[in-house]
Amino acid sequence: MTGLYFGGDYNPEQWTPDVWKDDVALMRRAGVNLATVGVFAWSSLEPEPGRYEFGWLDQVMDLLADGGVQVDLATPTASPPPWFSLRHPDALPVNADGVRLSHGSRDTYCACAPAYREAAVGIARALGERYAGHPALAMWHVHNEYGTVCHCDHAASSFRRWLRERYGNLGRLNEAWTTAFWSQGYSSWEEIRPPRATQYLVNPTQALDFRRFWSDELLAAYQEQKAILRGFTPDLPVTTNFVFGAWVPVDHARWAAEVDLVAIDHYPGDAGLGAEEQTAFAADLARWWAGGRPWLLMEQAAGSVNVETRLHTKEPGRMTRHSLAHVARGSKGALFFQWRASRGGAEMWHSALVPHSGPGTRRFREVVALGKMLPRLAETGAGAVRAEVAILWDVESWWAMQATHLPSAELDYLAAVQAAHRQVWAAGVGVDLPGPAADLTSYRLVVVPSLYLVPAEAAASIARYVEGGGHVLVTCFSGIVNEDAQVWPDGYPGAFAGLLGVQVEEFHPVAEVRLASGGQGRVWSEDVQLTGAEVIDRYAGGVLDGSPAVTRNAYGEGVAWYVSTQLDDEAYRTLLEQAMRAAGIELPGLPAGVELVRREANGTTWDFLLNHGDAEAVVPADGLDLLSGTEVRGQLVLPAGGQAVVRSD
Amino acid sequence: MTGLYFGGDYNPEQWTPDVWKDDVALMRRAGVNLATVGVFAWSSLEPEPGRYEFGWLDQVMDLLADGGVQVDLATPTASPPPWFSLRHPDALPVNADGVRLSHGSRDTYCACAPAYREAAVGIARALGERYAGHPALAMWHVHNEYGTVCHCDHAASSFRRWLRERYGNLGRLNEAWTTAFWSQGYSSWEEIRPPRATQYLVNPTQALDFRRFWSDELLAAYQEQKAILRGFTPDLPVTTNFVFGAWVPVDHARWAAEVDLVAIDHYPGDAGLGAEEQTAFAADLARWWAGGRPWLLMEQAAGSVNVETRLHTKEPGRMTRHSLAHVARGSKGALFFQWRASRGGAEMWHSALVPHSGPGTRRFREVVALGKMLPRLAETGAGAVRAEVAILWDVESWWAMQATHLPSAELDYLAAVQAAHRQVWAAGVGVDLPGPAADLTSYRLVVVPSLYLVPAEAAASIARYVEGGGHVLVTCFSGIVNEDAQVWPDGYPGAFAGLLGVQVEEFHPVAEVRLASGGQGRVWSEDVQLTGAEVIDRYAGGVLDGSPAVTRNAYGEGVAWYVSTQLDDEAYRTLLEQAMRAAGIELPGLPAGVELVRREANGTTWDFLLNHGDAEAVVPADGLDLLSGTEVRGQLVLPAGGQAVVRSD
Amino acid sequence: MTGLYFGGDYNPEQWTPDVWKDDVALMRRAGVNLATVGVFAWSSLEPEPGRYEFGWLDQVMDLLADGGVQVDLATPTASPPPWFSLRHPDALPVNADGVRLSHGSRDTYCACAPAYREAAVGIARALGERYAGHPALAMWHVHNEYGTVCHCDHAASSFRRWLRERYGNLGRLNEAWTTAFWSQGYSSWEEIRPPRATQYLVNPTQALDFRRFWSDELLAAYQEQKAILRGFTPDLPVTTNFVFGAWVPVDHARWAAEVDLVAIDHYPGDAGLGAEEQTAFAADLARWWAGGRPWLLMEQAAGSVNVETRLHTKEPGRMTRHSLAHVARGSKGALFFQWRASRGGAEMWHSALVPHSGPGTRRFREVVALGKMLPRLAETGAGAVRAEVAILWDVESWWAMQATHLPSAELDYLAAVQAAHRQVWAAGVGVDLPGPAADLTSYRLVVVPSLYLVPAEAAASIARYVEGGGHVLVTCFSGIVNEDAQVWPDGYPGAFAGLLGVQVEEFHPVAEVRLASGGQGRVWSEDVQLTGAEVIDRYAGGVLDGSPAVTRNAYGEGVAWYVSTQLDDEAYRTLLEQAMRAAGIELPGLPAGVELVRREANGTTWDFLLNHGDAEAVVPADGLDLLSGTEVRGQLVLPAGGQAVVRSD
Questions:
Q1: C181 and B346 in contact by Cβ < 8 A?
Q2: Is the dihedral of CA A421, A425, A429, A431 positive or negative?
Q3: Which residue in chain A has the smallest CA separation from B171?
Q4: Which residues bind Zn(2+) (chains A, B, C) (predicted)?
Q5: ipTM of the complex
Q6: Read out DSSP for B72-129?
Q7: Active site includes C258?
Q8: Is C144 annotated in some ligand binding site?
Q9: Where do the domains of chain C lie, and which CATH numbers do they carry?
Q10: Which pTM was predicted?
């Protein structure tokens, strides 16, 4: 398909056939062209072991085909039916406390259990056989949101196998895990356990490796299904929907190579502008993972944002702007979970394209309007986002910083990266989120927020980039441990001390701390000794009064900034703008609340302009607004909550 | 007995025989006439399996009989002895995580375990045989505070049997539980489990049915004992003490028909006036359950209110006013847990009629005074409370709203009902708490607070009441789901949209929201579309600015108000007073802090007047104050903390 | 050794032999003379069952001997190796919920498991055989921080055996545990269980006895190892390091008699002056336990204080002052955990004498300076602290007050004792922390803070002390229960009512309450009736308005004060100073923030003066400052953060 996808998860098994016909009619009205079908339909497809009921799905596929809606057909392996769990209790997952979970929700399986893997492959094969060649079939959607872990004996055994492969011999594992501490030395592989409930602090490298292991184990499970489906339909894309969260042991940057189309689910968690920032961050991540290929927003919520204890209802226009923020960054469309709101079940309050109140609502009218908007943006697919800034993102630093006993429990890797992203996003500058080992030469400025874990090669690669004229801005608690989560020797920030021209003698975790510039630091401060850098800002008051807080070091042809605390938003934005300007980046100077994403190709630019604010905003622009179809000359007036996509040649 | 009961739980097994004699002497001094004996005496009565020791109880019963104290004799089945648990580990309860609990507290049994049921029946029979005909015996008290649940395999098996009876076939269960969602379709009954610990969100209808099941299962256990005791003493009342709380899976409104005397335990939980409001609410509930028959306050605390982390000591007079608040609403007396404070054990700090400091204390003097007061009120038993307002209470809505994933975790059914009750109580207007299917024709105003779950017939019955001229005031999140906890189709508030003349397009959960009238809404707001109703108040500010917040609809001969948010106390009181006046109710206009309960019969009225405030209060009154024995003419001066019961013919 | 120890835990198994040589050189530079070796080295010493690897330890011991560093050699039994747990899963500990913990941390053993006890004795014997006679060996360090509990069946069986010994027969146990309440009467020993997860409130005496049992069981485990080591080296001291905390079921006062040198670990938990108060308290406790013998600070942190969620870095000089505060109170030196900061493992962020940043740091310079300071203080070992005040400390009251259902959850025994200690400490007056049964005749004032549990003999002994002319100050919730945790009869404060000349009719737990004097009470108040005492302060406002809050009673030749609430610091300090003066104690009148500890012997005094404040302080002093080597005449100027030890003859 050359245009943009519009649609979402469609679960016809919850409805009667008469509703299916209404559904297809409404989909046509809304311009829906892709439906993800069957994600949780295992017990409907195979109600008893080996007895398949494809009739209803045949009917639905035919109806959709007739209605011009393509199908992203899912394997339903994220929720085995109750009959499976009854027959294979050893395939039910076990938590760290040893509690074997019960079925009756979803994701009640251990991906290491042989019976589960066999059954998963079985249902995938049955679907492949049945629907290969169906006119509606456009894509395969394996499983749902891989990320479920288990601590059972199957998992323990697979973990040991994985460790054997990683470390080769026990001596190397004992060294990497620092098992000499607390008498944890292993004398045989059989002694090793997952990080189950234990008496006191958990070994941090064991915990880190358990996440690494699960990422690989789940990837293997995905690949088994992919291989089978590929066998039936060599030309159709196969993918799975990535879910992002602190609990997810999946290295999406590595998985990206194994999916034909990077697909993400995104559910922001803030009632205010934070939702828009998170949306931009998620889309920038997906864009990086896709590596220049298109990607797809596979799931979002039509009507609400889950904010702590309540579902905040999306204000008029917000669903549209969220969708455009993804499309602007390369999403091949906007999909939603789910098409029609469930009447019962655990997610009956999850919002939907067709709400409980039906199609005669503001919500559905906005859906129809969005459906009309998207085809006008098909041409933007030709362009690419130009990113002058890179902010390093590394899932291993995230996992390593989830250790139970850091010097401060308030250290939060994701928050540190998002704080940097927030400032660059607000400044309207394009940003990539590469890993630490990526080629950085195309960027003017590379931000390295709290990159706690750094292998030697990655540190060297970043240093070479600066040596060759690059600019980096590194923030506190970076370069601290190697890939075994062991402190780099010779003082902090081990891997970056030379590059930054500083030595950090001691950490000083704090609640907050003042800076001479008037800014505020939070959570963290450091006793920074200069070994070549110059001072940009100093601590004011407290035990570090007068000592360096922010520094800058000339290194080779380039520049390396260091920020030894977590700056408040205003001070951080000021500093990052200073660093961007110093790196030669032009700042567009947007009104507050206005988001800009520029895509370009062969001299044509497409500016996505989204006004998230409560007030009308005026931005300079020239060209054709693809959404309104009107010419823009000199300036564009964006109403509160409005949007435009301006093409200029 | 025609007078009022006074006394409480008496646990002589904690004391030596010399104390028993003191006890009876002190009971006589205090006017105690009923003692609940043996509630937790199983291990004292049957110290080893089959070996009974009734001697001590014989002695105690004789002493009490001689002292003129009647006995409410308990079966001790709420706490099986350690020897039972050692012999029947499968009868120990299992929590949702699969932890089998240990004995050493109380309530360590699963009522589904055959061994437990058999043992319970056994000890009940032994007691019946022994004490039928004893002169002290006046009543049977089965068990204690039914409410213990279990997730073990016995419970699973009983749950499945109950489900088979409820649904008949699996197809109907799969439909009711919306098992098509998340692939939960059951293909055999054996696959069904209690809602044990699982991976993610629990099926809300499964959770609701588990509570319904436990209510029925515990009722069956009660009935088994009742049948046996009835066999021995066909003329003596048999009851059990109801406990009320979010954790209790008991539908007391249904159980009420199975007890000869509705009996409740009540322990309020607020240091301030909240304790008095809760007391009135509990007594109004019990009065409704009793359905015009007398009922009994079986347990309350003499000396303290458990407020979060501490026992707040009841101020002088407060125990008396709490007791009178129950008697005013039809309690056949005032009983307490317990007679004499324990020296040891888990509840040694539970207050008692005879405190640790003994009878020479203010506390015991107030007990003696209360004991003298109650006989003067015997005549009030002839009167009935006249309730012009009904506030609907439905335990199924409570249970359904305990689902883990509502649009707002702050939605609280009990709080919503109590908020309505608080305003009517403060206004001094009599109120009933019937279920949704009750006959409402006798009420001038029916309040329907957040009645989330409504079967079709109940909704129809409420509509008919209004059609015929009744007034209702419905509050937000009412009429949303049917008895399977599935959203009513065709938009919110499904079951009540026609009655109210509104359609709610979307919910807007919030922290708080302003109203045009100056009032404040909390937790919730709604996008209300008028389909016939007129606007009483509007939202001010926010995304719903200017749209309807409170409406009124003429329906048939009656009126239906709708409140789409949770009003603050002041705004709610103002609105409810407006609605009461509109419904033709006269408001007595009481001073703040003064509670009024009127009972009447054949032209005679008894006004219970309780001054909970810190200041003297003057109320209009004429007649005889039964407590002081003085005539009241025109007005009554109630000292701070004082009370009067004025009879007027 | 006649001088002071300096050094700490040294874990060479984490490092390569080349680092060992650097270590010894750095130890010499710092003046280190004692290293605790092998605490967690079991898996390094016995990597497979029965295969010992002593080579590396031989080498380390030789290197240390050559470097002049003595060794406190540890048995590594606090962390059995993984191979042990694999072979003996029944020796892994089980928590109250029945979760069997996994190895992979430390302390993953049940001390009641026969296999564990056998293995512990085995490794102790192997070490004794190997290193008895080694020139470096100076002391044995058994295990680490005894305190691990378990709820498994081994533990249950040992608990029953201990109960049989304590109570002799079941009747006595049933009485002591008040099992008549809630039908908990035991008819055979086999029915008794540890306090595992149960349905509702736990029996408080069962919980108390479980702690008493564990204290004795762990002591037996210690004694087994001690006996073996004693066999090899009859003349070397054997000890273990005491850890202090609410979770620790160890009666250190009783254990003290079984160690040759009382040794404590101390980690304060406050960023402010609270850390210094806690340090003084810990050292005063250790001093009392040691009973006039020297004792040893075995572990402290060189660089940080663990404050809730973060490691607060110790300011310059603070490590030194903490160390001197211990030495001042009789510690035979200052040891640390650990020598060199780990590169990995669960405690890689624990501070160390040699930090990650190496020896070229402020931290290590302060270590070197402290190493030079200590030898100058060797002579102070001759002196003893003179304590005119005793504050009673009783671990059984602490345990009993950890019951789940006191009248207020805010009652905190440790906080009550520390509040008293804080005032006396701030006043610069020496204080002992004896148990309730101690001989009190040498004290001018005895403070009895919230001594909830008091056996009859202890109460009588305190009364005799006052009768003979002693002064006591008792605070609220004292004298309430006996050793079975059963309320003393005849009203509160049962055990002390006669002594204090008051009767407490009722408790009034509160948030806070005002006093007539202007002070503030917190958490607690009481309805105090005078039976001989005079009133010192009254409650102001609230239900107790005007009734006695603080009283004083003449009793025999002495005086007994009673404080029926928890006074705020200022009011408490004022009252305690009044009581100290009345008892004939002279108050030194120190500047705020200055700590004074006086040791004396034969007419010589050594005044340890520590200025914890931010400002210079001037104190009167005459003599020789041992630290600076200068003469002090009339007054001493202490810089902010400074210290002096002034000898005067």
A1: yes
A2: positive
A3: A47
A4: 110, 150, 152
A5: 0.97
A6: EEEP-TTS--HHHHHH-GGGS-B-TT-PBPBSSSS----TT-HHHHHHHHHHHHHHHH
A7: no
A8: yes
A9: 262-378 (no CATH), 389-582 (3.40.50.880), 594-648 (2.60.40.1180)
A10: 0.97
